[in-house]
Amino acid sequence: MTHTNALLTDLYELTMMAGYLAQGKAGDTAAFDLYFRRNPYGGGYAVAAGMEDAVKIAMEMRFSGDDIRYLRSLRSPRGNHTFPDVYLDYLSRWRFSGEISAVPEGTVVFSHEPLMRVRGRIAECQLIESVLLCHINFQTLIATKAARIWEAARRAPVLEFGLRRAPGPDGAMSAVRAAMIGGAEATSNVLGSANFNVPVRGTHAHSWIQSFETELEAFRAYAALFPDECILLVDTYDTLKSGIPNAIQVGKELRDKGHQLAGIRIDSGDLTFLSKRARRALDAAGLDYVKIVASNDLDEYIISDVLAQGGEIDIWGVGTRLVTGSGEANGALGGVYKMVEYNGLPKIKISSNLEKMTTPGVKKIVRFYDMDGLMEADALAENSEDISSGEVHIIDPANPLRRTTICSERRVELLVPMVSSGEPVYEFPSLEQIRAHRKSQLSELHESYKRLTNPHEYKVGLTQKLWKLKEQMIAAVSTSD
Asked: Is the pLDDT of residue 481 over 60?
């Protein structure tokens, strides 16, 4: 059997759809917000990613004959068919016909604001929930990690080296794309390079050195094969006593032949100390153009510490801790998909945990910029609300005592239409354009929000009109209880 991505969903999406159909609700309309509740890594921001993959797979979802046959084969513990034939017939004709709006990939985003807004028939909106979250949660997490690493590296080149530690082949490919969005300059993943048309970079392993009688012989053999892109791994035996001296000798031999040694790589030890010694030795040998590459379980904190101590590293190869999103306390972004409107009426989820309480109604996000061109605050407003001019008062939904008045002239609405009546209406930009957008976005974010520890909290608030609606709905639920 050949199954399609239509089955890439959680079972409860299908059971709820069957229930909507049985209850005569399949054609009812609904709106959902996709957002996350906390900025990842305890940081001050996130970088949106995964929208293109999420939207495209949602648009392409169709149940094949094999998919339907599989669903028909499902049985309850009593042996009855899980799904009735009328529902399976409905699925065989299913396609998404609603609307999707989202922030463009590479946009700097914050907790509690919708990264994506989905509207349409409830049964259609329900089915695409899992696949939207799957793509956006993972890619946003990795793009944010890459951005943090890029900033910590003081915007020096970062290489994505994580294929062998990635969460499976699909995760490896998604990680390449997300890492490139967030700040990586190249990848070691050859398939990723080919599929996404991005630079591929690599060196060699310690096993290459060990397969020769001497380290110098191994270096010479590698340089002979790749004289114009040779990066030599210098820590197989002794970085200072043999690795760097042998690399310098090969570098001089390449220079004499009209080539240039591209770099040396240090994969263990005290990176600050070793890189300083390496830089001094290379410069003294007239090889000041040779780059120093560092690897070995790096992340933004290690990179920041090495540079703060005066480390002389030019390029950072980051693997495991980038592609796995290491460092996020929950192990994932934690994005959620919550109903905010049903048949034209706002809906709210009440919780004793303020973080889990939803904000009702179809919303838009308007970003305000201060006089220096930096992001000042984001206002969540009812979709029909006009806040294009004048003073706007916003209220922090997590702490209603925090209220701010903003009146900046430059205001940008973040959610853009991507799908209308089931048809794409948005031209997805190239990966390079997304990268440029991310660079621009981060340049407009004040340094206080980019600190690795104790970042300043960016203001995201509800307009007074939206806050009043939320209060009224909370009061109504409390009264009914």
From this structure: no
Percentage, residues of the chain above pLDDT 70: 99
Question: Which backbone phi and psi does 76 adopt, to 5 degrees?
Answer: -80, 170
Q: Are strands 108-109 and 46-47 parallel, antiparallel or unpaired?
A: antiparallel
Sheet holding 392-395, edge to edge: 403-406, 392-395, 459-463, 375-382, 363-369, 411-413
pLDDT in tens, 322-356: 999 999 988 889 999 999 999 999 999 988 777 78
pLDDT tens track for 124-161: 999 999 999 999 999 999 999 999 999 999 999 999 99
Note whether 158 and 149 are within 8 A (CB). Answer: yes
Q: What is the pLDDT of residues 240-266, one digit of tens each?
A: 999 999 999 999 999 999 999 999 999
CA atoms of 185 and 196, how far apart (whole Å): 12
pLDDT recorded at residue 94: 95
Which residues in 110-227 belong to E strands, given as ranges?
Answer: 116-121, 158-160, 186-187
pLDDT at 329: 80
Q: Given a cut of 80, is residue 479 above it in pLDDT?
A: no
Q: What is the distance between the alpha carbons of residues 194 and 178, in angstroms, rounded to a whole number?
A: 15
Instruction: Give the Cα separation of 206 and 8 in Å (integer).
Output: 40
Q: Which DSSP symbol is given to 81?
A: B
Q: What is the pLDDT of residues 58-99, one digit of tens each?
A: 999 999 999 999 999 999 888 888 999 999 999 999 999 999
Task: Please give the radius of gyration of the chain, using alpha carbons only, rounded to the nearest integer.
Answer: 26
Instruction: Decide if 466 contacts 380 (C-beta within 8 A).
Output: yes
Q: Which domains does the chain have, with CATH numbers?
A: 5-61+96-143+330-480 (3.20.140.10), 202-314 (3.20.20.70)
81 close to 74: Cβ distance less than 8 angstroms: yes
